[in-house]
Specification:
The complex is a heterodimer of chains A (280) and B (321). Chain A has 8 helices and 13 strands. Chain A is 29% helix and 27% strand. In chain A, the strands form 2 sheets. A 9-stranded mixed β-sheet of chain A has the order 9-8-7-10-6-1-4-5-11, sandwiched between helices. Chain B has 321 residues and is an alpha/beta fold. In chain B, 27% of the residues lie in helices and 27% in strands. Chain B has a 7-stranded parallel β-sheet, sandwiched between helices. In chain B, strand 16, helix 7 and strand 17 form a beta-alpha-beta unit. The longest helix of chain B is centred in the first third of the chain and has 14 residues. The relative contact order of chain B is 0.12. The chains are: A alpha/beta (280), B alpha/beta (321). At the A-B interface, helix 4, helix 5, strand 7, strand 9 and strand 12 of A face helix 3, helix 4, strand 7, strand 9 and strand 10 of B. Strand 12 of chain A pairs antiparallel with strand 10 of chain B. Bound molecules: flavin-adenine dinucleotide (FAD) (2 copies). One flavin-adenine dinucleotide sits at the interface of chains B and A.
Chain lengths: 280, 321
C-alpha cells in the first residue's frame, strides 16, 4: 500500500497558497459487472452488454487519487470522462458519489465496435474540452484489458505520460511518480500537463457516503456525441477499427486431473506425486 | 517462407537481453528471414546476444539519457517508417516499457494494436491469437490495412532458441524532436531485494492465496518453496491486501509463469489468475472447496485445509532430508 506521506501532505498544505488549484480529468470506464461473466456475441464478436454497467473497480483508484491530489493542491476540480453506450451513467454516479465534481459522457451509436485506438480518439477529444492539468486513467480496464488506451490518449493530446504509477505527488507544476518496474520501481518526474496511469493499490478508494450518493444525483453530466467532439464517424466504431476478428475458438481443455479429499493423509499423495515428477 | 520484415522491440533486464525479447526473436525467425531488433539504447551492447537469437540487424537509438524510453522509441520507429522502412509486423512485449511504445506508435501510424497475443501465425497475413475468459477461448485477429501490424505479445508465449548466429549489424535509428511528449525523466531506480530463483524462471512455483487466512501464514508458502528450491508466488488478493509485494503476483496483471510444477494453495482459480499459470506443465492445487475453479486445471487436486496439508507436507519433506 502506498501511503500519502503525512509529512509531505503537511508540506504541500503549507505551500498551498503558492499552488494554483488543480484540475484533474479521470477516465472512468463503465463495464458489465465482472461478477456476472458475460459472453461474446456470436454475431458481432463483442462482449454482450445488455445489463446496467458499473464503475470499473480499476478506475476507482484513479478517482480516489484525483480527489486526494486536488485536496493536497488546496482546491480544484475532478472531472470524469467516460465513453459508454446508451447514455449509461450508473458507474459515473458512483464516482460522483465518491466526490468527483462533474462528468463528460460520450455516448453515440456510431461508437459500437470501436477498438482501443478509436476509444482513445474519442476520450482525448472529450478530455480536451475539460482542459485539465492532469489526466488519470487505470493501467488497464477489467473487461477489455488492452492496456494501450492511456498511452494512446497521451500521444493524441501531445502530452508526456507516466504509466504504472504506484504513487503520485504533485507540486510546483510537476508530478513525481513511483513507477512500477519489473525489478522494483523507478522515480519519474514529469511536467504538467501530463497523463498518468495508475495501478490498483495506488490509494485506497473511499466508499461513497450516503451524503455523497445524494449529492451525486444533482452533479452535472455533460452528454456529448462524436459530432459535438468534431470526430468523423469513419475513424471510430466498426468503420475505424483496422482489425478484424477471424475466429473465436474453444481452447483445448486440460485433461481432468486426480482429485482427492483430504482425510489426513493427502499430503502423502503430494509427496509421491512430486517424487514421480522427480522434483524431490 | 517469409512474411516480410519483422521488427522486434528489444529490451534488457538485469544487464542482459530480456527473455521476452529472446522469445519474440524465436517466433519472428519462424515467420520471416528478415528479423530486426529495435533498441532504445546502445546497439553494440546487445548486438551479439540478439544476433545469437536470430536478429539479422539492430536498429538502435543510442543512449536516451534518462528519459522514459517509450516516446523516443516510438518516435524513432515512426520516423523510420515515414522515411521508407516497411516492417510487415512490429512485435512488442507486454512489459512496462513495451506497452508505452505500442500505444504511442499506434497513434503515430494511425494503426491499431492487437494485444495480449500468445501466438502469431501466417495465414495469408499475420493472425494473432488472444486468450479470453481465462484462456477458455481463443480469439484470432488480423489487421485489415497494409500498415505495419503492431502486436503486443505476452511473455512466455514462445520458446526462446539460440540460433548460433553472429553479432547483428547495428545501424542508427534517429530520434526526432518529441516536443513535450519526451519530458518524463527517470531520476532513480529501486530494485526490490529477492532471494532464490526468479518467479518467472523457476522450475517450481509455490503460490498462496487468500485461503491462507492471514499474512503470517505466507510462511507456509515460503517454507515449502525453500524446501523445493521453488519461487514463492501469490494471487492478487493477497498482494492487494499487502501480505506480499506486487512482484510476487501471478496472473493477468502480474507475472506469467510456466514452471514444471505449480502448486496453488488457498487460491480459487479466478480467470485472471489462470491466464498467468495455466501453461505450467503440472499443476497441484490445495483448496478446501471442491467446487473451486482451480481444480479444473489441476493434475492433482487436494480438497483440504491448507493449514493442515501444508505443515504435514513440509514435515514429510523434511523427514526425507
Ligand atoms: C476480449 C477483447 C479483446 C480485445 N482486443 C483488442 C485488441 O487486441 N486491440 C484493440 O485495439 N482493441 C481490442 N478490444 C477492444 C477494446 O477493449 C475496446 O476498444 C475498449 O473500448 C478499449 O479498451 P480497453 O478497455 O481494453 O482499454 P484499456 O487500455 O485496458 O483501458 C485502460 C484505461 O483507459 C480508460 N478507458 C478505457 N476505455 C474507456 C472508456 N470507454 N471510457 C472511459 N475510460 C476508458 C480507463 O481508465 C481504463 O482503465 C478487445 C475487446 C475485448 C472485449
Ligand atoms: C482486471 C483484473 C486483473 C486481475 N489480475 C489478477 C492477477 O494478475 N492475478 C490474480 O491472482 N488475480 C487477479 N485478479 C483478481 C482475481 O479476479 C481474483 O480476485 C483473485 O485471483 C482471487 O485471489 P484468491 O484466489 O487468493 O482469493 P479468493 O478468490 O478469495 O479465493 C480464496 C480461496 O481459498 C480457499 N480457502 C479458504 N480457506 C481455505 C483453507 N483453510 N484451506 C484451503 N483453501 C481455503 C477458498 O475456498 C477460495 O477458493 C484480477 C482481477 C481483475 C478485475
Amino acid at each position: 500500500m502506498v501511503e500519502f506521506h503525512t509529512s509531505l501532505a503537511w508540506e504541500i498544505g503549507h505551500k498551498r497558497r503558492k499552488l494554483t488549484a488543480m484540475k484533474v480529468a479521470v477516465c472512468v470506464k463503465q463495464i458489465p459487472d465482472p461478477a456476472d461473466p458475460g459472453a461474446l456475441d456470436e454475431a458481432t464478436k463483442c462482449l454482450k452488454r445488455d445489463t446496467k454497467l458499473i464503475l470499473d473497480e480499476s478506475d476507482s483508484y484513479g478517482v480516489e487519487m484525483a480527489l486526494q491530489l486536488v485536496d493536497a493542491a488546496g482546491g480544484g476540480e475532478v472531472v470524469l470522462i467516460s465513453m459508454a453506450p446508451n447514455s449509461e451513467v450508473n458507474g459515473l454516479r458512483t464516482a460522483l458519489a465518491m466526490g468527483a465534481d462533474q462528468a463528460i459522457l460520450v455516448s453515440d451509436d456510431a461508437l459500437a465496435g470501436s477498438d482501443a485506438l478509436g476509444t482513445a480518439k474519442v476520450l482525448a477529444a472529450a478530455i480536451q474540452r475539460a482542459e485539465p492539468d492532469l489526466v488519470l486513467a487505470a493501467t488497464e480496464s477489467s473487461d477489455g484489458y488492452t492496456g494501450t488506451v492511456p498511452e494512446q490518449i497521451a500521444e493524441l493530446m501531445g502530452l508526456p505520460s507516466v504509466t504504472f504509477a504506484k504513487s503520485i505527488v504533485a507540486a510546483d507544476g510537476t508530478v513525481n511518480v513511483q513507477r512500477q518496474t519489473e525489478a522494483g520501481y523507478d522515480d519519474v518526474t514529469c511536467p504538467l500537463p501530463c497523463l498518468v496511469s495508475v495501478t490498483a493499490g495506488v490509494v485506497e478508494p473511499r466508499y461513497p457516503s450516503f451524503k455523497g450518493i445524494m449529492a451525486a444525483k444533482s452533479k452535472p453530466v455533460d452528454e456529448v456525441t462524436i459530432a459535438d467532439l468534431g470526430i468523423d464517424a469513419g475513424s471510430v466504431g466498426w468503420a475505424g477499427a483496422g482489425q478484424e476478428i477471424v475466429a473465436v475458438e474453444e481452447a483445448p481443455a486440460r485433461e481432468a486431473g486426480e482429485i482427492i479429499e483430504d482425510e489426513g493423509e493427502a499430503y502423502q499423495r503430494i509427496v509421491s506425486f512430486l517424487d514421480e515428477l522427480k522434483v524431490i | 517462407m517469409s512474411v516480410g520484415t519483422i521488427w522486434v522491440l528489444a529490451e534488457v533486464a538485469e544487464g542482459g537481453v530480456a527473455s521476452i525479447t529472446h522469445e519474440m526473436l524465436a517466433k519472428a525467425r519462424q515467420l520471416s528471414d528478415d528479423v530486426v531488433a529495435v533498441f532504445g539504447g546502445d546497439g553494440a551492447s546487445i548486438a551479439e546476444e540478439v544476433g545469437a537469437h536470430g536478429a539479422g540487424s539492430v536498429l538502435a537509438t543510442g543512449d536516451l539519457g534518462g528519459a522514459l524510453p517509450g516516446p523516443s522509441i516510438a518516435g524513432a520507429m515512426a520516423a523510420a517508417i515515414a522515411g521508407g522502412a516497411a516492417p510487415k509486423a512490429i512485435m512488442v512485449g507486454t512489459t512496462y516499457g513495451g506497452r508505452d511504445v505500442a500505444g504511442r506508435l499506434s497513434v503515430k501510424l494511425d494503426a491499431p494494436v492487437i494485444t495480449n497475443i500468445v501466438d502469431l501465425a501466417d495465414e495469408g497475413g499475420l493472425v494473432g491469437t488472444e486468450p479470453i475468459f481465462g484462456g477458455a477461448s481463443n480469439v484470432k485477429t488480423k489487421f485489415t490495412s497494409d500498415k505495419p501490424g503492431i502486436f503486443l505479445i505476452r511473455p512466455k508465449s514462445f520458446e526462446a532458441e539460440a540460433t548460433g548466429g553472429g553479432a547483428a549489424a547495428v545501424s542508427a535509428l534517429d530520434v526526432p524532436d518529441l516536443g513535450a511528449t519526451g519530458t518524463a525523466v527517470v531520476t532513480n531506480s529501486f530494485v526490490e531485494a529477492s532471494e532464490g530463483p526468479k518467479l518467472d524462471e523457476a522450475a517450481v512455483v509455490v503460490s498462496g492465496g487468500r485461503g491462507l487466512g492471514e499474512s503470517d501464514k505466507f510462511e507456509l508458502i515460503e517454507g515449502l518453496a525453500a524446501k523445493l528450491g521453488a519461487a514463492p508466488g501469490a494471487s492478487r488478493a493477497i498482494v492487494d491486501a499487502g501480505w506480499v509485494p506486487y512482484s510476487y503476483q501471478v496472473g493477468q496483471t502480474g507475472k506469467v509463469v510456466k514452471p514444471d510444477v505449480y502448486i496453488a494453495a488457498g487460491i480459487s482459480g479466478a480467470t485472471q489468475h489462470l491466464v498467468g499459470m495455466k501453461g505450467s506443465k503440472t499443476i497441484i492445487a490445495i483448496n478446501k472447496d471442491a467446487e473451486a475453479p482451480i481444480f479444473g486445471v489441476a493434475d492433482l487436486g487436494i480438497v483440504g485445509d491448507v493449514h493442515k496439508v501444508l505443515p504435514q507436507l513440509l514435515e514429510a519433506l523434511n523427514a526425507r532430508g
